[in-house]
Amino acid sequence: MSFSPALIRQDFPIFERTVREGKKLVYLDSGATSQKPHSVIEAESGFYKLHNAAVHRGAHQLAEEATDAYENARLIVANFLNAPGGSDEIIFTKNATESLNLLAYSMGNAKNTNRFALKTGDRIVVSEMEHHANLIPWQQLCARTGAELAWFSVTPEGRLDLSAIDSVITANTKVVALTHQSNVLGTIIPLEAIVARAHAVGAVVVLDACQSVPHMPVDVAALDIDFLSFSGHKTLGPTGIGVLWGRKNLLDELPPFLYGGSMIEYVTMTDATWAPAPAKFEAGVPNMAQAVGLGAALNYLSKIGMENIHTHELALTGYLLEGMRGIADLKLVGPTDTHSRGGAISFMVQDIHPHDLGQYLDSQGVAVRTGHHCAWPLAKALNVPASTRASLYLYNDESDCDALLDGIVGAKKYFGRL
Amino acid sequence: MQLDSLYQEVILDHYKHPQHKGLSPTFSAQVSHVNASCGDEIILNINLEGDLISELTWDGQGCSISQASVSIMTDLLTGKTLDQAAIILKSFSDLMASKGTSPGDELVLEDAIAFAGVSKFPGRIKCSLLGWMAFKDAAIQAQSKK
Ligand SMILES: Cc1ncc(COP(=O)(O)O)c(C=O)c1O
Fold it and tell me: Is the distance from the beta carbon of residue A317 to the nearest atom of ligand 1 less than 6 Å?
């Protein structure tokens, strides 16, 4: 069957509504959060309707069914990412931000001979294109441990500058945490050289895959990375569910971050020992219905095929970039071709502030995001205090791109009226 | 179009031709304010002569609403006493909080009445308040130095 955004859209109830007095909804903000298909909404509400009980606890049928559904979702995630150690490597969190904080705080709890223990002289490497979620947890971990933060800069074209890779990832580097695909620039980073260098110095590679897992095949084994995070809500799944994947041997050594029920092995009044991962990192009753919804989302994506989705988005990105080239005064922020690039497209239109452009586009039914996109240091580095971002997904088609392009031209007329 | 109630001519006019932009070399107080969610920022200088606001100057970057609002505000408040300015500030804040239900008091707000339409766009209220909140802060700082 050929790839049909029109058919796909029929699975998403939100596209049945209109916005701003009867305008067709042109949703180009999936980079912020994706829309949800029926199957996800039903899986989440179906859990509440039929199976609701606290997982891993009750001595009754519902608890059994709830646990099965929750653990099945974990297995779906493990298969989706091709996790070499299976579902024991999948930790459910509330979103990617929590996944990254969990990792940073857990590392901060490591002592003495633990491989994650950090001290003065150690180094954590990030890049200038990080989302705040993959910058501030590391920045603050450095502040708590005395480790130093170093980073790859970004070239004017919006690519990672790897020219000094050996002096950025130094022998004392313990963590290299990078975004797989920039949520602002769309840039997909070349991992091979980075992973090779990081592993050569004994550092672990943490991938913020928020903008890649929803849009292209991501195989953690093939990438040879060590940790990965993504958010369910950007992946057609519910809000309140995120994933941290980590290699089994590393999760075994990593101390926990949150303490409480479900994460223990043995407890006395003065001490406790920990359950093996993933339980060790899932204290308290988790977001069960949301995990089940995420499982349904990944099944939906797998049925369509991540390779097909990536191909579709790439073609659409090419189409949009081509159309943008035809608009005078439009400047792209990020790579201008589709090489190693995804469908997050940020741009500026001369003399129209992004917030005003976004407002005009909204009046035409076109939903985009404006601002610094939670990557303030990147905005400063590129000297682009704010931009407008359109981000594409499987349900978008050329007519959505045309609506955006027409909207930009319309905004130029509207704000040029004085 | 509903958009026209937001983008009044006087707003776009001030955006394109901002008043009192360019910081004075001396000041009674200087403040800098940002809208963390969108990156808009302004620096505001206030000069007081007794209780009189003798000069307001600013610099900054941001959307038409935030920039026009500072421009109109500096026009409006220059030459007023702090007490008069407080009344105008209160009137403007009330208008922004009205969710489009209040026409605003044109006698008090003068050109700033153009922002009445902004109160219908929840996402833009903080844009129009950026300069006014900076003024409030600057006035307090300048007074406390006296
Ligand atoms: C690259 C990247 N990392 C991290 C995040 C944070 O995701 P969340 O807010 O779902 O935790 C985002 C979301 O915008 C993102 O785009």
Answer: no
Contact A340, A186 (CB under 8 A): no
Alpha helix positions (H), A48-119: 61-81, 96-108
By C-alpha distance, the chain B residue nearest A362 is B3
Check pocket membership of A133 for ligand 1, CB cut-off 6 A: yes
Closest residue to atom 12 of ligand 1, CA basis: A210
Q: State the CATH class of domain B2-144.
A: alpha beta
Distances (CA, A) of B58 to A129, A151, A238, B34, B67: 31, 34, 44, 13, 10
**Using CA atoms, how far apart are residues A234 and A27, in angstroms rounded to an integer?**
13
Q: Which of A184, A374, A376, A391 to mutate to test the pocket of ligand 1 (most atoms within 8 A of CB)?
A: A374
Residue A119 has pLDDT above 80, yes or no: yes
pLDDT digits (tens, 9 = 90+) for A169-215: 999 999 999 999 999 999 999 999 999 999 999 999 999 999 999 99
Cβ <8 Å between B6 and A360: no
Write the ipTM: 0.90
Residues composing chain B:
146
User: Do A359 and B39 count as a contact with CB atoms less than 8 A apart?
Assistant: no
Q: Which atom of ligand 1 is nearest to the CA of A182?
A: 1
This model's pTM is above 0.80: yes
- Could you give the residue numbers annotated as active site of A? 374
Chain A residue with CA closest to B37: the answer is A371
* Angle at the Cα of B5 from the Cα atoms of A417 and B7, rounded to 5 degrees: 40
Average pLDDT on B129-133 reads: 97
Query: What one-character-per-residue DSSP string does A211-255 give?
Result: TTTTTS---HHHHT-SEEEEEGGGTTS-TT-EEEEE-HHHHHHSP
Q: Which of A138, A95, A135 is nearest to A116 (CA)?
A: A138
State how far the Cα of B75 lies from the Cα of A179, in Å rounded to an integer. 46
- Residue nearest ligand 1's atom 9 by CA: A97
CA-to-CA distance for A355 and B125, rounded, in angstroms?
12
Of B3, B16, B38, the CB nearest to A418: B16
Say which residue the tokens 């180094």 belong to. A123
Cα A284 to Cα A56, A105, A263, A311, B56, distances in angstroms: 10, 17, 8, 40, 55
The residue ranges of every structural domain in chain B are 2-144
Domains belonging to chain A, first-starting first, are: 5-30+306-414 (3.90.1150.10), 41-302 (3.40.640.10)
Give the distance from residue B59's alpha carbon to the nearest chain A alpha carbon, in angstroms.
Answer: 15
- The CA–CA distances, whole Å, from A213 to A1, A77, A374 equal 23, 11, 19
If pLDDT is split at 50, 70 and 90, which confidence band does B145 have?
Answer: confident
Question: Phi/psi class of residue A371: alpha, beta or left (left: φ > 0; alpha: ψ in -120 to 50)?
Answer: left
Residue with tokens 């989706």: A80
CA distance B56 to B43: 11
